[in-house]
Amino acid sequence: MSEDWTRSILEKCGPTVEKPGRYTGGEWNEIRKNPSAVRTKVALAFPDVYEIGMSYLGQKILYSLINARPSCLAERVFAPWPDFERELRMNGDPLRSLENKLPLSAFDILGFSLLYELNYSNILTILDLGGIPFSAMDRGTRHPLVIAGGPAAFNPEPVAGLFDLFLLGDGEEGLLEIIDKDAEMRSRGASRKDRLRELARIPGVYVPTFYESYVPDGGRLQAVRPMGDVPAVIKKRVLRSFSRSHFPEDIIVPNVQAVFDRVAVEVARGCPQKCRFCQATSLYAPFRVKDPSFVIEKIFKSLRATGYEDASLFSLSVSDYPYLGETIKMLMERLEKDHVSLSLSSLRPKGLSADIVRNIIKVRKTGFTLVPEAGSERLRRVINKNLNDQDLWEASANAFREGWKLLKLYFMIGLPTETEEDILAIVAFVDKLTALGRGILSSPPRIHLSISPFIPKPHTPFQWVAMEDRQTLLEKKIDLGRLLKKRRNVQVKEQPIENSVLEAVFSRGDRRLTKVLINAWTAGARFDSWKDHFQFSLWMRAFEDAEVDFQDYLGEMDRKVPLPWDHIHTGIGKRFLSDELDRALRAETSPSCLETTCGACRGCDFKADVERAFIKTVDADWPQRVPLGVMTETVLRYQAFYAKNGPARFISHNDLLNVLQRSFKRAGVDVVYSEGFHPKMQMSFPPALPLGMRGNEESLEFKSRYELGEREFVSAVNRHAPEGIRFLGLKKIESAALSLTERIVGLVYSVDLTSEAGRRGMERTREEKNLTGSEGDVVMHLAQKVLFDKPELLEEISFDEAGRKILLRLAYNSRKSLRPQDIVADAFGLQDAVYFMTRERMIYR
What does the pLDDT read at residue 781? Predict the structure, then answer.
């Protein structure tokens, strides 16, 4: 079913779909179970495009956790890009999961990850293409339960009507409990309402239908209260046994390059810092750390299972991981030998020692980012960003000394108490950083500056403050751009103010916004976090039509009045947040959780969970990597032959390079690397196969220090290649031989006339040119004209009567190429022919 559907829908779409590889599935480590053999089918939905969703660690953990159960199945679905959405609607086809291509209506549970408010319009697209009513009240027993979790779910009210339930907190804690309870209730034939009432008893579960909204006295936004026997406050679920909790090793390796395309291992959850603008501090509290030996073990096993050449240590504040330096040192002792780079997420300058910098650049330089947030030390005290200028200069100097020439800086504008001096301090900061870099590098460093408007988020000390008005923010942005314009080494990246305004509205919103969302989606809102798709005017009309004033959500809020999200408890006390706001207005700092005691702080419910004595031994017992073949003293050249069919033909040439290199890594094929800061596998390829075209005998060339036997090579690589890639053979090439492209003299292509598109094209050509006779006669008549028009490149056209194929033999000229699909289109009227064409083979000297 999966290959038939993929081929059918993508061949119908033709070149109108930008990246068809987003929708094929068939990736390495994909888990494909028999749907009829499981009790519960779960679709894990991510309301953004494939490349972003495949970077999300939470979905990887839940995918592995659910599929580890024999009675459960988890499959993935992502928001289709507008081009594919259009094609699905034109063809009357529902949106399907990647693994078994099941329509969403075939699942028992449809679970959304809500990371970002500007993805909400994509939720409606997924529901609509899945044939699922928008309103939870309109769904019956035949519809899946539509549930959600993630950071944006901590104010669920703007989308409360779309979901049957929300799970607040750590998904590993509550999701399996929901699945088990729902399966039990379904087996007893319980009604949808009874199932939801029973699920509402699970800690951390919020079922909006059992709660009503109201406007409290003195307020302008709707708050929420329970109706009947359900909790008045929903407390989030917390995974307390975090040190060695479930973490996937054999993660899916995407066929289309993801935004963060690497092995990422979570070293800590939560953050001990108390930055007052940061919502994640509350949502992921308390701060918990992974056993360092467990981290190292997971990285090496995952690299082996995936073939990745990049690894990352991930957390909200990786600098606060107490075993960071030792872990990096131990990792790099091995990763350097395997040409694997290491990067760190969210690294505070205080954690960036010279030793850490030296270690992480041993393979290749990864990104270097500073996040001062504010230009002045005074404003950093207001937001409790525990950084002074000296910390930032020392971290930058360490990077410059190790050869970094590009730094990324993140700042916010519109922070509480911000003045003109604070804005000018950003410019002064950039100037001083430029001077520091010039003194060490002998030339000014490149600086990429990201400027974002501040958004007062729920569950933070700033949740009560107003967002600065659009005009003021715009003026600040213009002033900054004008001041920095003359600095040629500085590139400014700005977050559009209108995007931030809409994000603020929905992050602080109430149930009235559901109607606004549906209005905007109906008018065409999609992918609102993408600049080229966002239409603020469309949203303004949606607010007007719903008779909702979006300014209501942006102003200052009374601390005594209930807020729309007060029924959701993160574990951080509201009194504590209010006290922190007072300290902010006095520009007073607060210590981190690692610098104070719970008795002194009294800010949260996690006193017994906060770990401060970090005494674990950093150790690792990893198996030695055994390369394929026998090592030699010389570098050998090889040419490998493979076929590219099935879902693999819908991935681009650049993505194919990654797929093949990772297949080699997994199979243990040791390829020689280039020298320099960014070492690459020494592989070469012939002319790229057009996207969508099959390849029956493709080839590549690589160098290795190992003697490889053809049979063992083919067997090993085929065991580690994704669906659609099959290796056929291997031969050794003389070291003095011409390059791969220099040895090619011709290419043979075929056109399948048995395909629906092929038949239609031939019929159209016959009518337009008034040709009679058999299809063979028609082809040969047209072939003579093409041979006459392009004799220098097109050597032969023939017709395979038995296979009903047109065969084309083209001469290869690296300076003057001829696209075979263009010949087919011009001569035979077969448009979009690439999807029913095959490159049969290449002819070598």
Answer: 66
Helices (H) and strands (E) in the chain — how many of each? 26, 27
Instruction: Round to the nearest angstrom and report the end-to-end CA distance of the chain.
Output: 42
Beta bridge partners, 801, equal none
Number of domains present in the structure of the chain: 4
Instruction: Determine the structural domain holding residue 827 and report its residue range.
Output: 630-844
> Look-up: residue for tokens 């097109």?
794
Domain end call among 495, 527, 549: 495
Q: What mean pLDDT do residues 387-394 have?
A: 88
What is the predicted pLDDT for the residue at 6?
66
Please report the pLDDT score of residue 792 as a whole number.
Answer: 63
Domain boundary among 495, 518, 543: 495
Q: How far apart are CA 815 and CA 606, in angstroms?
A: 68
Shared domain for 94 and 201, answered yes or no, is yes
Residue ranges of E strands in 509-599: 568-569
The pLDDT confidence band at residue 366, using thresholds 50, 70 and 90, is low
Between 757 and 524, whose confidence is greater?
A: 524
Residue 217 in any domain: the answer is: yes
Candidate from 12-21, 66-75, 552-561 with smallest mean pLDDT: 12-21
> Whose structure tokens read 């210590």?
591
| Beta-carbon contacts of residue 76 (< 8 Å; ≥ 6 apart) | 25, 43, 44, 46, 53, 59, 63, 97, 98, 99
Q: Which residues contact 143 (CB under 8 A, 6 or more apart)?
A: 105, 132, 133
The per-residue DSSP string of 107-138 comes to -SEEEEE---GGGHHHHHHHHHHTT--SSGGG
In 3D, which of 186, 165, 292 has the Cα closest to residue 237?
Answer: 165
CA neighbor of 375 nearest in space, from 428, 329, 334, 322: 428
Do 394 and 335 lie in one domain? The reply is no
Q: Which CATH number characterizes residue 423's domain?
A: 3.30.750.200
- 675 and 651 inside one domain: yes
In a domain, 52, yes or no: yes
Cα–Cα distance measured from residue 678 to residue 729, given in angstroms and rounded to the nearest whole number = 30
Do 668 and 807 lie in one domain? The reply is: yes
The CB density around residue 776, as the number of other CB atoms within 10 Å, is: 15
| 294 and 440 housed in the same domain | no
| Residue 608 to residue 774: CA distance in whole angstroms | 83
Write the pLDDT tens digit of every residue in 6-21.
Answer: 667 777 776 788 899 9
Question: Which two three-digit tokens encode residue 740?
Answer: 């791969």
Could you tell me the CATH number of the domain that includes residue 46? 3.40.50.280
Please tell me whether residues 220 and 273 are part of one structural domain. Answer: no
* Mean pLDDT, residues 318-342 taken together: 90
% helix, strand, coil for the chain, step of 5 = 40, 20, 40
Which single residue is written with the structure tokens 């006095």?
Answer: 586
Give the confidence band of 801 by pLDDT, cuts at 50, 70, 90.
Answer: low
